[in-house]
């Protein structure tokens, strides 16, 4: 639980409003119906980025942000490799 952490944490979420609402996170700041431009500005000001989205990975990399990229282990049909091998960010801060 975030309430138990000994330091201040602010969670900012960007994306489609209906998807974000389904998560039910009462402590998060929602950027409703965000655009790629608003996502860029949020990422620019973050200390850490957590994302399953490759576009956000590229933006976070451009700003040299520490990042946790979330990918599944499902194998891709044409390669046989797990998704995280193909889509992993591939830089030291990820």
UniProtKB/TrEMBL annotation:
Superkingdom of origin: Bacteria
InterPro entries hit by this protein: Glyco_trans_9
SUPFAM superfamilies to which the protein is assigned, alphabetical: UDP-Glycosyltransferase/glycogen phosphorylase (SSF53756)
Pfam families, A to Z: Glyco_transf_9
Name used for this protein in its record: Glycosyltransferase family 9 protein
Species this protein is from: Acinetobacter baumannii
């Amino acid at each position: 639980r975030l309430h138990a952490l000994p330091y201040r944490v602010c969670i900012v979420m960007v994306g489609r409003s209906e998807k974000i609402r389904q998560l039910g996170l009462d402590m998060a700041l929602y950027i409703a119906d965000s655009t790629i431009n608003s996502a860029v500005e949020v990422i620019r000001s973050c200390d850490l980025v957590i994302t399953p989205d490759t576009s956000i990975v590229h933006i976070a990399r451009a700003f040299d942000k520490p990042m946790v990229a979330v990918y599944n282990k499902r194998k891709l049909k044409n390669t046989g490799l797990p998704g995280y091998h193909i889509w992993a960010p591939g830089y030291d801060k990820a």
